[in-house]
Specification:
A: 397 residues; alpha/beta; eight-stranded mixed sheet; 46% helix; B: 106 residues
Chain lengths: 397, 106
């Protein structure tokens, strides 16, 4: 059963809607764990041997595997069910939010009244032009995407994203959906204990769930989250206020930051770059380099690069590029991330790359022990399923 | 807060050769979700009744339904089968065949 979110903006539907959300969440867990394992086993034991037997070359990359899998009935069932489950995530939450809009507005007003005690802020730029990769696509199949779902003045898209992610992640992203932020920030805290960032920037922060994690791991730091989507930022601000976490949210495009050179000790992003066209990724990294202070760290939590993965695992992760309205996803995964960093201005001897287990589900002592040895890329890297590990890359300036 | 849309824009991919199979999958999963919600409600109802002392644990499992109720259930089950499997028993006709029939001279 999806747990109620740990802030005041959570809207609970009827008993029937909550049970349906439970079903959808469990369905996703079944598809992404059980069916995914069976599908891989079918590839290894039937499809790939079949190709060899018929004299064809073994798949060399994810695209080859995808081609081999498409005619397979199990792949068809897996994909059709996964696609339906994704639609159901948004549909069930959309209905709950629509039917409880008065309740949601009351919760929002109550949080706004608390604002005096919060040390964060919200700054919107109504003149900011939305990039086409946001405005033209319902990313993740979410109706209305990040920006239009509830009009420019509302924050419905943020609510949809937050409460949808809670169903989508079937309990794998922490009770506050901030495991990625905590895993990344704590990795840096543990591995670089002398590094004490004073100014932290999160690019493409959406609802600020992972931004808040940095503010919690480094409570003395001034933390800022930026995004192009006003509805998400409005929601992010209210969400952070509700949790008493001070974060400054600003509407801004990460490809053209309105910050002076050498402003931040950390420039972070999570699951952000793969939603951007390659030219925008390069612009973001160049901007990150510009606004970082000397000695500062650029860190991106991302999907693992295709050249680090076995062909089947590449194919498996790229499913979203083909079927989840994430058209730039595969092109990002085809890049060499070290080259992207050096092209942005970072030195080759200052690069950083790591794989970390999830911080949320173990004690701090166990986490310190778990990251004492380097982890290698494998099928669990970046794959939302039992045993998932997150990939981070970046560089010190 | 303005109403949120419920439909994703753009063309929906189909995974089976016939997109109708994907549409059937969507309907079936929605039905499964509804079925689960009903089951959850029954569980909750039994729990409420037990707490209120109207139902003892095991009462529902062990109860023998009266003959009249079993007959009603059986009839409803039969009707459900007929409703659910109606398309299996139909005499199917392709749109082209239907067109030919319409165009046929009297």
């Amino acid at each position: 059963m999806p747990q109620p979110l740990l802030h005041d903006l959570y809207v609970r539907g009827t008993r029937r809607q909550t049970a349906q959300q439970d079903f959808v969440s469990s369905l996703r867990a079944y598809v992404l764990n059980d069916m995914a394992n069976t599908m891989k086993s079918r590839f290894e034991n039937k499809i790939e041997p079949g190709l060899r037997k018929s004299g064809k070359d073994a798949p060399q990359n994810g695209v080859d595997v995808h081609r081999a899998m498409k005619p397979d009935n199990y792949f068809k069932f897996y994909s059709s069910m996964r696609y339906c489950a994704q639609e159901m995530v948004w549909r069930t939450i959309g209905r709950v939010l629509n039917e409880n809009s008065t309740d949601f507005d009351a919760k929002l007003s109550a949080v706004a009244d608390e604002e005096d005690t919060a040390a964060g802020s919200l700054t919107l730029d109504h003149s900011l032009e939305l990039p086409k990769n946001v405005s033209a696509i319902d990313v993740h199949l979410a109706p209305g995407g990040y920006h239009t779902a509830a009009g420019a003045d509302g924050c419905g898209a943020g609510a949809l994203y937050d409460q949808g992610l809670n169903i989508f992640s079937f309990g794998m992203m922490g009770a506050n959906l901030d495991d990625i932020g905590h895993s990344m920030a704590n990795y840096i805290r543990v591995k670089f204990p002398d590094f004490k960032p004073a100014d932290i920037l999160d690019l493409g922060c959406t609802i600020g769930h992972n931004t808040c994690a940095w503010a919690q791991v480094y409570p003395d730091a001034d933390v800022t989250g930026i995004d192009v989507a006003a509805p998400c930022l409005r929601y992010a601000h209210a969400r952070a206020v509700s949790q008493g976490t001070p974060v400054h949210f600003r509407q801004m495009n990460a490809t053209s930051l309105d910050f002076a050179d050498n402003s931040f000790d950390v420039v972070f992003s999570s699951m952000f770059l793969h939603e951007l066209p390659l030219k925008d990724i390069k612009a973001c990294l160049a901007e990150a380099y510009r606004v970082l202070k000397p000695g500062g760290l650029m860190l991106h939590m991302e999907l693992p690069p295709n050249d680090e993965m076995e062909p089947y695992d590449s194919f498996y992760l790229d499913w979203d590029a083909y079927y989840n309205n994430e058209p730039f996803y595969k092109k990002f995964r085809d890049q060499n991330v070290s080259d992207l960093c050096t092209e942005a201005g970072f030195s080759t001897d200052r690069l950083l790359s790591f794989i970390t287990p999830q911080y949320t589900y173990m004690s701090d002592a166990d986490y310190v022990s778990a990251v004492s040895e380097e982890q290698a890329f494998d099928e669990t890297t970046g794959r939302l399923a039992e045993g998932v590990q997150w990939f981070g890359f970046g560089a010190w300036k | 807060m303005p109403d949120l849309g419920l439909d994703t824009k753009g063309r929906r991919p189909h995974f089976f050769d016939d997109p109708a199979t994907d549409a059937m999958m969507a309907a079936m999963l929605q039905l499964m979700a509804e079925n689960f919600a009903l089951k959850e409600r029954l569980f909750a109802l039994e729990h409420v009744l037990e707490n209120a002392g109207h139902l003892k644990p095991g009462d529902v499992e062990s109860v023998d339904l009266p003959e009249a109720l079993r007959a009603q259930l059986s009839a409803e089950q039969q009707a459900f089968f007929e409703d659910a499997f109606r398309a299996l028993n139909a005499d199917h006709q392709s749109p082209d065949a239907r067109q030919q029939e319409i165009d046929k001279d009297d």
